[in-house]
Amino acid sequence: MGLLSLTFHPSPAFNPSIFTLPPHRCHRPSSLAVRATSAAGTPQPLLQVNDLRAKILESGVEILHGVNLTVNEGEVHAIMGKNGSGKSTFAKVLVGHPDYEVTGGSVVFKGENLLEMEPEERSLAGLFMSFQSPVEIPGVSNDEFLVMAYNARRRKLGLPELGPLECFSYLMEKLQLVNMKPDFLNRNVNEGFSGGERKRNEILQLAVLGADLAILDEIDSGLDVDALRDVANAVNCIRAPKNSLMMITHYRRILDLLNPTHVHVMDKGKIARTGDISIVETIETEGYETVAALT
Ligand SMILES: Nc1ncnc2c1ncn2[C@@H]1O[C@H](COP(=O)(O)OP(=O)(O)OP(=O)(O)O)[C@@H](O)[C@H]1O
């Protein structure tokens, strides 16, 4: 997220573990958000990627060979593709990961040149990414991190920072949404978290910060059935008619829960095919080679 270089404003000490929360259930089907967008008229483009090329900075090897993709407000895009096809690289290039250098093409986000923005600016502008392997941040507690990041985003939006009590109730509400125990607020970010807890914590960050475009890189990997349902339910609850989602996945289960409007197949650093959920059946029966070749 690149938020660590932002000014640090620790939250007041509190002991969230004394609170027990009932599980929060928001069963709003994801299709509602899509319908709301359609009813409002022609959706506006949120992200426009044109012939994007990028190489690994250290080795100079080009991984993205001309990606084209448009995400409109309110849409849910799934990116699938065989291992090593460039899905995570594409997502990381969008958020400005320092391992990669853009060598060609353009990316416009909310009408602005995304490639000219620093990673922090991209995040503050409303781009969120949950990483395939979320990192630990030793010495920084979850509540400190969330409050710092959320208040930075509020400042960017011209809103007043939340005070300690408001922060507390805001965080508790979001914890409830992702069905996490309050104790997780006191623990250092991702330190000692299980794989599934890290993924759930990523969605907590998304719930707290909000995003115009959330990119979820394999948020479903390592989640048990209940955790997957919780995560999908939280993502559906967070969604708003103008907000969009881009998820990278290998599995159909999360697609059935998040209801993508578009499914893309990435192959050799390009989007090789785009369609609807029916592509997934072809992938499952015939494999990626066949699907990617059907262009
Ligand atoms: N920082 C890096 N250093 C070296 N190689 C890299 C780096 N980043 C990406 N690659 C290589 O680029 C290719 C694409 O990787 P990427 O992680 O984007 O694939 P993916 O489609 O997300 O794969 P998976 O489905 O296995 O997660 C791979 O061959 C990978 O080894």
TrEMBL record:
A Pfam cross-reference name: ABC_tran
Keyword list, A-Z: ATP-binding, Nucleotide-binding
Domain (ABC transporter) ranges: 47-293
SUPFAM superfamilies referenced in this protein's UniProt entry, alphabetically: P-loop containing nucleoside triphosphate hydrolases
GO molecular-function terms, A-Z: ATP binding; ATP hydrolysis activity
Database matches in InterPro entries: AAA+_ATPase, ABC_transporter-like_ATP-bd, ABC_transporter-like_CS, FeS-cluster_ATPase_SufC, P-loop_NTPase
Alphabetized Gene3D superfamilies for the sequence: P-loop containing nucleotide triphosphate hydrolases
NCBIfam families assigned to the protein according to its UniProt record, in alphabetical order: sufC (TIGR01978)
Name of protein: ABC transporter domain-containing protein
Annotated organism of origin: Arachis hypogaea
